[in-house]
Specification:
mainly alpha, 106 residues
């Protein structure tokens, strides 16, 4: 595996981890939920997260669409959230977004 191939594989792995983390933070989806939504097995989700196999574009698009829906729902609910809940959401989102930036910078 060449240096570019390795960098690409690492970026895909980081992206998959961050996408699933954002889904967990924004909508409460866990690995088994993602597996059901995508119609794949739990071990395949683990392969995405460990970089053994890349996420297929059809699954990435579906999960990104779910994330956008969850974010839009959260926007409507933000006014009803208490200060502590807003801080926890902010902290979780910042961490996930920093991880996502790191995936693109590596």
């Amino acid at each position: 595996m060449g240096e570019n191939d390795l960098a690409y594989a690492i970026a895909l792995q980081s992206y998959a981890r961050t996408l699933l983390e954002l889904l967990r933070v924004c909508s409460g989806l866990k690995k088994m939920d993602v597996a059901k939504i995508c119609g794949v097995t739990n071990p395949l989700i683990s392969h995405w997260l460990t970089g053994v196999r890349p996420m297929a574009p059809v699954h990435e698009h579906a999960l990104r669409r779910l994330l956008m829906e969850a974010v839009n729902e959260k926007r409507g609910a933000l006014k009803a959230m208490g200060e502590g809940e807003l801080h926890r959401l902010r902290d979780a989102l910042v961490k996930a977004l920093v991880d996502l930036d790191g995936a693109w910078l590596e």
